[in-house]
From TrEMBL:
Residues 124-220, 526-620 form the Acyl-CoA oxidase/dehydrogenase middle domain. GO terms for biological process: fatty acid beta-oxidation using acyl-CoA dehydrogenase. This is Medium-chain specific acyl-CoA dehydrogenase, mitochondrial. One of its GO terms (cellular component) is cytoplasm. Keywords: FAD, Flavoprotein, Oxidoreductase. Belongs to the acyl-CoA dehydrogenase family. GO terms for molecular function: acyl-CoA dehydrogenase activity; flavin adenine dinucleotide binding. Its cofactor is FAD. It comes from Euzebya pacifica.
Amino acid sequence: MRIEPFTEDHDQLRQTIRRWVAEEISPHAAEWEADGIFPREVFSRAGELGFLGLSVPEEWGGSGGDYWATVVWGEELGRAGFGGVPMALGVQTDMATPPIHEFGTDEQKRRWLEPAMRGEKIAAIAITEPDAGSDVAGIRTRAVRDGDDWIINGAKTYITNGTRADFCTMVVRTAGKPGDHSGVSLFLVDTDLPGFSVAKKLDKMGMRSSDTAELSLVDVRVSGDALLGEEGMGFGEIMWQLQGERIIGALQAVGTAEQLLERATTYARERTAFGRPIGSFQVQRHRLAEIATRIEATRRLVYETAEAWERGLYPTLSIAMIKLAGARLAHWVSDEVMQLFGGFGYAEESGIPLLWRDMRLLRIGGGADEVQLEVIGKLIEGAGGLREPARAQVAVGEDRGVGVQPLYREEHEALRKSARAFVEAEITPNVEAWEAARDFPRELFRTVGQAGFFGMKFDPAHGGSGPDFVAQAVWIEELARAGSGGLAADLGAHSDLPALYIDRAGTEEQKQRWLVPSIAGEVVGALAITEPDAGSDVNGIRTRAVRDGDDWVINGAKTYITNGSWSDFVVVLATTDPEKGHGGKSLFVVEANLPGVERRRLSMLGWHTSHTGELSFTDVRVPDENRLGEAGTGFYQVMQNFAWERVSMSLGAIVAAEESVLGAMAYGRERQAFGRPIGSFQTWRHRFADLATRIAEGRALTDHALRVMIAGREDAPIEAAKAKRFTQRLAVDCADWAVQIHGGAGYMMEYPAQRWLRDARLGPIGGGTDEIMAEIIGRSMGF
């Protein structure tokens, strides 16, 4: 399975751009920042190297590449170490010129696009006005016909490249009044025309190497062929342009965040305090792990969005999300890295304050955070819901050999419909009654097994229909929609834990004895690793298995075991050779009716329907034929299977988060306060938009972890840890806000919101705590 969306050509392009940035751009940061401008030759040099038209056809001066070449360009520009030059070049390549290629005539392309691609002309995009920023419909600059010409009067502000642009792609009004969407048009305006002037160069907190200007237009006469596209259609045309602008901004933000993380990682290894590198301190290691996780989440959503855009789709919601997420990410990372650098991070010498100032603009320019939240909030109330983001748009389709390889294909979407229908018929109607009873019928295992939902990742020889982990992911997601965390945990643990261990390490006789009936739902299985004094510290378990002839005698205790109190068999991890450390652990299948096995069901904050138990083993004798895999391989089997366990938990958490937000939104539409639905208030609209964006990031991150795991990559446990850490806390946050909008009702047991929160709270604990995930990620970074 192809994990990354790039070909060898893209990789070579990345190396070329990275070398150019490192050798010809980054070394001049301090000089150009002090000058407040960078040399015009940077544009011509970029044009000479072919960087300014990577995705533009060769006939118009470009390189004829696909959109993934632009993705590489955006990311690598972000690594420059400052934002001014990348922003100015981004305006040239992805803001001012794309409308010419998309809407322009051949003559306009020859006159303006071709020289811009060569770097001979500098372009600017002129939208913002003193009284109209993100409100494009509110622009006042007006163009009036005069014979075959147009006369333009007005003002533009905050225009990047404004002091030296050779032309502007400009939004003006040709009809109507400010506030009307109709009557807006695009023009290509040369800056050397009479009446066109730079009113002033603007001084800024950051992005100082990028010239930003306020422009004045007094009776500027342009010819009729300066009209770009159709008269009066400019609003739609500039909305299209803004999508590409926001994607390139998000790409640069991810590139900047990645470069900052690399600097922080190096500094954490080299800088010592209290006699050791600061990266060896857990708080810094966890800080770096959190940064790495959030970068990866945003990157994967950006890639999915780029894939949709490259396919010719128009993922407005996804683009607003990556604009919001990318801008926030870059500034947050710069702030976190400054903190890690300490006093040196506050000194201009470190270069961190420069990026901190520069990245702050991303949350304003191209549509402020608040504008993106408005866009997202309105769109998720529409038909798109929370699943419109890129995954839903590119989930089904052929693998084109480039881009993000689709995980979910037509057969998976057909399965999704079947699984959803099953859950809605057999499970959802009973959830409230089962939750009240703190139980569900054991017969449900057989029902699920007969429907085939336990066997999708297993071979048909053992009753499965796979192996297809993507199909299993579909089932996990649809099961989570029922809204009962405990029930989903019991059914999920049965097939995703003990059955998987037997499938991967068991003999054929063991598979026939335990796996086949497990897939059929005829028996219930459990996995017993955690102990009272050893949770995520697998190597610290004390349960012992001692060889006695052809048998093993097991003594010890296990706790927090899902299905533990009613399972028919348990896969138990025990120490078989205390002297061998990791190599002294082995797995055994212990049938629950054996003498010496005792268990009790635990009462928990949430997961009320789950049969989570505490087990004790007193001189439990099991034959050697019950040993699972070679003696001494148990620890490694657990580590191998943790990746799927954590990915599966992430899949469930994302759906739980989504269902919490959907439930909160539904309540917000019904509950009235101050004469209107409470969900219509901006504070809640923005809250839902923020959570929906984080859900989209979490889903993209989880899909990536699933791809990596299926491909068998060595970093699968790391990517799974990132997904689990991100998604479990997200599910808690979403449920908590669902309780909040419900007010007092959300605290009452008669409403499901309180259950969503109680159930979600286990996520950051079970399967490895948030802190353990941070340790795994941090150590993978060399700490």
